[in-house]
Amino acid sequence: MTTEEYKHLLPSLPIEPGVYRFIDANDVIIYVGKAKNLKNRIASYFGSTKGMNRKTIVMVKTAARIEYTIVETETDALLLENTLIKRHQPRYNVQLKDGKTYPYICIKNERFPRVFITRQVPKDGSTYFGPYISKFQAYTLMNLINDMFQLRTCNFNLSESNIKKGKFKVCLEYHIQNCLGACVGNEEEEHYNKKITQINNMLKGNFGPVKAFVHEQMQSFVEQLKFEQAQKMKESLAAFENYQGKSLVASPNIGNVDVFSILKDEKLAFVNYLNIINGNLINTFTLELKINLDQDEQDILEFAVLELRERFRSTNTEIITNHDLILPLDDIQITVPKIGDKFKLLELSRKNARHFQLEAHRQAMNKEKRLTPSERILTQLKIDLNMDRLPVHIECFDNSNIQGSHPVASMVCFKQAKPSKKDYRHYNIKTVEGPDDFASMEEVVYRRYKRLLEENQNLPQLIVIDGGKGQLSSAMVSIRELGLENKIKVIGIAKKLEEIYSPDDGTPLHLNKRSESLKLLQKLRNEAHRFAITFHRNQRSKLFTTSELTDIPGIGEKTAQTLLHAFKSVKRIREATFAELSNEIGNSAAKKVMEYFAKQPE
Questions:
Q1: Average pLDDT of the segment spanning 488-510
Q2: Contact 18, 77 (CB under 8 A)
Q3: β partners of residue 150
Q4: Domains of the chain, earliest start first
Q5: What DSSP letter does each residue of 165-225 carry, written as one string?
């Protein structure tokens, strides 16, 4: 559309709120936008092009005409814009980039409803929960449902008439007590539907009624002296409470809220959604959107909020987000927190969005160039640990003090994700008495990097401490004292649960057990442990050997060390001639050694 054509349109443009559409020569809508003031907003496309997005300039030139619709309020404009974008999918609007079909849990619309996982969501009257971005989460829930409620898995038409006619026979699921045999009339529809009600509660996050129902069933079995069934319900209840405990992320006082955050770069926007019910994280999802024009974060977020609430069928009346939003929703409270539990939830959402953004960038980078295995692993580790630089040089520390004696430490070095054994170092602990792992870690880290700084050698990009918060905190004392806190990334890895700790984050990071970056960290940790244990054993062995020689009357520790250095072992010293011994330690000492071993049994 030319400037002359716009000038002809200008007098008729209203100043009310509304939705406008850019349409090309083929009558295809190429862009839909909303405006508080249609006249001012459309005018912005035809002023100076300085600072205007290149795609916006192309879009305006491609358009043959502009159409608009006046509405009553800004919220009506947002609702209409959202509807038109989803219906026409204009080329220059943000585009959803799902890329994958995520699993849902379906409660089938039928008599004696089945409950199962599906990736298809037809409009068949059934109830669908999800999508679950983690397949593991969906299957964990499904297994929990199967353990707690004995539901049918067959796809028979269990109409009342079919059951009365005896058309069906019980199957193996009935005999192994996974089903109560509704197909032959052994379970009343009312009892079955009570279980379905509790499954609905469970998937919605209303855990209280579910626990009460299971407890009631357990008590009923006890009264009927069905102790085996009661025990099974007790185990199911324990598993359910464990799942509920893992889901808790916020104070129950927060209630039912939706949490949204957005991160945006030049080409993509990432909107993370947390569904919180009674303080429990029920689901999380990150929506990826392709940005075709330079749109504000608020506009993109308003579009995404409507999309995600519809997709997840949310009825929560409070939305926590990082932008003030105008939404066409009744009785909705928008909260932009600055402190407190709600702010922590918002930060959790931003953390998820950031992780998704980094993962998308990693995938894009992998497409642009073929990485070597080492580059691929280090790139993933950089993303997982949120580092600014690629960790091509990593050093890992471990302590060893078997039974509290002879404390030593080791440092192993990996370069390009492979061991650099010439850079390995071991340390005898000098300033610490007794088995104090924390103080020992503080000492060796200080000694290592004080020397590198004094010798002007290259520092690593990543330091790994074998241990949890305590060892990491001790290492950071030395790192801060040397002024390296903002120059090197330092983490601790706790072996039991493979938890990764950062100095300023009390919440541990859990990497996928199959991830290459976790395997690299485990390899570093195991190599440091092996190197420390080997050194510790050698030191103890050398100490015991020296002690045997110093038992010889007139032979001191220095002479013993000289002999060991020359002959390598006590056996060779025993077999040496007088001339060989005297050549190393003199005639007098050699005579004492010869006389001592002559009296000892072979």
A1: 82
A2: yes
A3: none
A4: 3-93 (3.40.1440.10), 104-247 (no CATH), 252-364 (3.30.420.10), 378-538 (3.30.420.340), 551-599 (1.10.150.20)
A5: TT-----HHHHTTS---GGGTSS-HHHHHHHHHHHHHHHHT-HHHHHHHHHHHHHHHHHTT
Averaged pLDDT of the chain: 81
Question: Could you give the C-alpha distances from 109 to 122, 123, 126, 602, in angstroms and in order?
Answer: 12, 11, 4, 88
Structure tokens at 229: 């069934």
Task: Say how far apart CA 427 and CA 441 lie, in whole Å.
Answer: 11
pLDDT above 70 as % of the chain: 87
Instruction: State how far the Cα of 318 lies from the Cα of 62, in Å rounded to an integer.
Output: 41
Whole-angstrom Cα distance, residue 261 to residue 119?
Answer: 26
Where do runs of H (alpha helix) occur along 455-515? 469-481
| Segment 473-496 mean pLDDT | 89
Q: Do residues 398 and 406 lie in contact, with contact meaning Cβ atoms separated by under 8 Å?
A: no
The answer to whether 539 touches 428, Cβ cutoff 8 Å, is: yes
Backbone angles phi, psi at 65, to 5 degrees: -160, 170
Q: 């000098």: which residue's tokens?
A: 430
Write the pLDDT tens digit of every residue in 153-174. Answer: 898 899 888 888 888 888 888 8
Amino acid letter, 322? N
Q: Left if phi > 0, otherwise alpha if psi is -120 to 50, otherwise beta: which for 170?
A: beta
Long-range residue pairs from 241-245, CB within 8 A, at least 24 positions apart, any chain: 241/211, 243/140, 243/141, 243/144, 244/207, 244/280
Contacts of 64 (CB under 8 A, 6+ apart): 1, 23, 24, 25
How does residue 97 score in pLDDT terms, banded at 50, 70 and 90? Answer: low
- What are 194-199's contacts with CB under 8 Å, separation 24+? 195/149, 195/150, 195/151, 196/107, 196/113, 196/115, 198/149, 199/107, 199/115, 199/145, 199/149
Tens digits of residue pLDDT in 457-472: 999 999 999 888 888 9
What are 503's two structure tokens? Answer: 């100095």
CB 549 within 8 A of CB 573: yes
Burial degree of 67 (CB within 10 A; 0-12, 13-18, 19+) = exposed
**228-251: pLDDT as tens digits:** 777 877 877 776 666 655 454 545
Task: Give the pLDDT score at 477.
Answer: 93
Q: What digits encode the pLDDT tens for the residues 547-567?
A: 567 678 878 777 877 887 788
